[in-house]
Structure formats: C-alpha cells, structure tokens
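Illustration: PepSY domain-containing protein.
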Amino acid sequence: MTRYVIAFTAAAALTAIAAVPAFPQVVIYDGEPSDPYSVDGNTESNFLDSWNRHHDDQNRWFGQQSSFGPGDVITLLEGRGYRVRNVQDVGKRYLVKATRGGDNLLVSVSRSGDIMGVVHDQR
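Result:
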C-alpha cells in the first residue's frame, strides 16, 4: 500500500511540473509586420512600450529613483567583457554600441542597471 501512495505522489508531482504553462517570447521583426492580424503591425513593440511604462511607473510609485548614468553603463559592460563604442540615451534605456568577441552588438541597459537585451548590429 505504501508503494502505491509513493508512486501516485511521484506521478502527481511529475504531472504538475510538466503542466506548468510556457509563456511565449516576444520577438520584434525588423522591417516587416510581425502580426498580420494587427492594425498597425506593431503588436510586440506596443506591448514592450506598455510593459516598460508600467515598470517605470512602479519605480516612480515606490520611490526607487535610479541615478544610473552613461559612465555606470560603460563600467557595467566593460566589467562583463564588452568594448563600448557609443552610449546613447533613448529615454527609458541606454542603447549601447559595443563589441565582444569580434561581434558588433547593440546592448539595451535599463536605468536601474539591468542588461535588457543584446542583438547583433547589422550596420
């Protein structure tokens, strides 16, 4: 009887773990509409803008003002092996042109010092 209880518990636990929902990754396509059913073709970028606004509003609400500047961005990325070429303030984030391992990269860094994304620079 004990074996059946243990086997049933293990099966239930494995089923619960396997049933955890997977969330889709947001992908922004460059130069083509990403969602053929959307009105303006900017579904993902609109989502990311609203997500950024929501989290920036939360930081203002809780009084978490960030003093993370361009110099801090350079220090952060160089400490992680990037060679920084240019830091551009784009409002809610810093957009950084950098290289690492011979690859030209665009790195997005938040005002709180989090690396939000890294993509290959095609230019």
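Reading the tokens back as a structure: Helices lie at 2-18, 43-61, 70-78.
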